[in-house]
Write a structure and sequence with these properties.
NADH Oxidase, 4-stranded antiparallel β-sheet, 8 helices, about 45% helix, binds flavin mononucleotide
Length: about 210
């Protein structure tokens, strides 16, 4: 009898543990053959890059995919600046470090994750959905990049480091966004020098409601 209680206790503990764990995504089925699905499932954020920037002709293709993203009322409420000049990138990193004298400069400079081609995306302040437009644009570019063998990383932290201090005003000005626009997202591109594993996803966040 005592043994039965102990066994039941162990089983219920294991079940409780399972409920706290993230629910795994169901296995892929025939969609694995679909190139778009395959690209979406294979993409990873890349945080280690080879030094050469992405060829501009390839970046043009990626940018074309970006501006063809769905966007609110087709307002295209974004502006995009691409920086692949290491001298200007160094200027930007120096300004960010200067703007945060209390922080480790190497940590600040590392927030671009070493991507040799950096994209700065600004949103129109006057349009309440512009941040979504920028996010959808960024995803189109990251997926198309991956399909062409180009790695990428979406970056929020440089936005904070660039916009919360006066020292970065000159480099922001040099990026030349229009008056009504503010920096919203950065996306780094380059050739991957690592092959990270997929991060787990929680299928439990998804429900069909009848
Ligand atoms: C809005 C946003 C901001 C992000 N900011 C950063 C960042 O500042 N630094 C970083 O290393 N990764 C950043 N990431 C990347 C996420 O950490 C990454 O997408 C997530 O861990 C899932 O991994 P995966 O992209 O490889 O699937 C950001 C992603 C998004 C969408």
């Amino acid at each position: 009898m005592k043994k039965t209680f102990v066994t039941l206790g162990i089983i219920s503990c294991l079940l409780a543990g399972c409920q706290n764990k993230q629910q795994e995504t169901p296995p892929m089925c025939e969609q694995q053959e679909n190139q778009v699905v395959a690209t979406i499932m294979a993409r990873r954020s890349i945080r280690k890059y080879k030094p050469q920037p992405v060829e501009r002709a390839k970046m043009d293709e990626i940018l074309k995919c970006g501006i063809n993203a769905p966007n609110g009322q087709n307002k295209q409420s974004w502006e995009v600046r691409v920086v692949d000049n290491p001298v200007f990138m160094a200027e930007i990193k120096d300004a960010m470090a200067k703007g945060h004298p209390d922080m480790d400069p190497e940590m600040i400079k590392g927030c671009f994750r070493g991507a040799p081609t950096m994209m700065f995306i600004a949103r129109a302040r006057s349009y309440d959905f512009s941040a979504y437009d920028c996010g959808l644009m960024a995803e189109n570019m990251m997926l198309s990049a991956w399909s062409m063998g180009v790695g990428s990383i979406c970056l929020g932290s440089p936005v904070r480091f660039l916009t919360d201090n006066e020292a970065c005003a000159p480099v922001l000005q040099k990026l030349g966004f229009s008056e009504d626009y503010e920096l919203c997202l950065c996306v780094g591109f380059g050739y991957a020098d690592e092959a990270p594993a997929a991060k787990p996803r929680d299928w439990g966040k998804v429900k069909y409601v009848d």
